[in-house]
Amino acid sequence: MHSVLVVDDDEMLVRVLERLLMVGGFEVQAVDNGEAALEIAAAAQPDLVILDCMLPGMHGFEILRRLKESNAVKDIPVILLTAQDREEDIVHGLSLGATDYIVKPFKAKELVARVVRAFATAQAAVGS
Predict the structure, then answer these.
(1) Chain mean pLDDT for the chain
(2) How far is 21 from 96, CA to CA, in rounded Å?
(3) Please, is 119 exposed, middle or buried when counting C-beta atoms within 10 Å of its C-beta (0-12, 13-18, 19+)?
(4) Which is the CATH superfamily of the domain at 3-121?
(5) pTM, whole model, 2 decimals?
(6) pLDDT for 29-50, tens place per residue?
(7) Cα–Cα distance between 64 and 90 in angstroms, integer?
(8) Dihedral-angle region of residue 45 (phi above 0 means left; psi in -120 to 50 means alpha; beta otherwise)
(9) Using CA atoms, how far apart are residues 40 and 36, in angstroms rounded to an integer?
């Protein structure tokens, strides 16, 4: 079973994501801030991170930058899930190493399909 770390401070959205992902067969852990995200990612080594950009204390781009700079977790795929929809934000997130960028509000089936694709892409990269 693949594990997903959800990083978002919107409790209702976290519950929706947990339900969607658990029904899809994923194990889900959630945190609401950047420091906790970095700690859990290093300790638990999730298979994927779904990361909001607008978080209290530390912006999602900073969290992403730190994840990608850490040898321990740099290969974990990260999907940015955020309301930031400007083209420059999307390009910046992808240039920092995000696997995908999904703008809120999102479609449930599309999100799950992108998560599945992120896992497949990561596994193919490991196998090559």
Answers:
(1) 95
(2) 25
(3) middle
(4) Response regulator (3.40.50.2300)
(5) 0.95
(6) 999 999 999 999 999 999 999 9
(7) 13
(8) left
(9) 6
